[in-house]
UniProtKB/TrEMBL annotation:
Name used for this protein in its record: PTS sugar transporter subunit IIC
Top-rank taxon, per record: Bacteria
Subcellular location: Cell membrane
Keywords, sorted A to Z: Cell membrane, Membrane, Phosphotransferase system, Sugar transport, Transmembrane, Transmembrane helix, Transport
Record keyword Transmembrane present: yes
Transmembrane domains' residue ranges: 27-46, 58-84, 96-117, 138-161, 173-197, 209-238
Topological relation to the membrane, as annotated: Multi-pass membrane protein
Major subcellular site: membrane
Species: Lacticaseibacillus rhamnosus
GO cellular component terms, A-Z: plasma membrane
GO BP terms, alphabetized: phosphoenolpyruvate-dependent sugar phosphotransferase system
Pfam (any one): EII-Sor
Amino acid sequence: MPIVLQNILIILLAAWMAWDNGTGVQLIGQWPVCVGLVLGIITGDYQTAMVISGTLQLMSLGVAAFGGSSIPEYGVATIVSVFLAVRTGANTGEAIAVGLPVGMLTLQLDILVKYFNTFTAHWEQRLLHERKFKQMQAVYLLSVVIWMLKYVFPITLVVLFGAPVIKSITEIIPGWVTTGLEVAGNMLPVLGVALLLHYMPARKYLTFLIAGFVLAAYLSLPILAVALLGGGAAYWIYQQRVASLKPASAQTVDESGDDYDE
């Protein structure tokens, strides 16, 4: 495959990752192994693509963007790492050493895009109240395109200019900018958890919520241990609910049986 065509397809893959997640299609998502498989098809070097993407997949396990939180973009890191390894012959460690900072840079862009798309969300809401549904759909698609830019911008720079330009950009960004974005990024998970608790029956199960907080914050139990205890508590509540419904179900069956006999 010609190099120019490969470059175009790699940039389009970055755009598709955002479109795939923004529209709910979810064919490949942002999973490194899925992105790596497509990169293997584009570049023709399946072994390099899968080795690097598999390594990044292991690094990303257990990392998820709940609520409004922002996480490193491992899909972008996969594209950059595989691209550099195939084009320059860099080994896995060297390629990932360059790809991960690009993923971290994209994390900062993620925060900026989320702030910008807040305005498009209010714009869509206003159009909804005015019953201008076609215009509302157009603004939604605009927000997805804006979301795509956070992937397309760094990938395009890497494809056109290579790794040195990315290193230069990360070095010249002022410290106060990255600090401010980091503070904002730390606030988003708190807001996301608060929104989730608002829709969950937190008051009804406040005892379990407090117990989980004490176990994690004061007893320093690992998240997996707290999650297993929460799963056990959920299963116990489920059993109690099933037991409370059994008498009513049995009575309904007996009454229907009597009607049938009559």
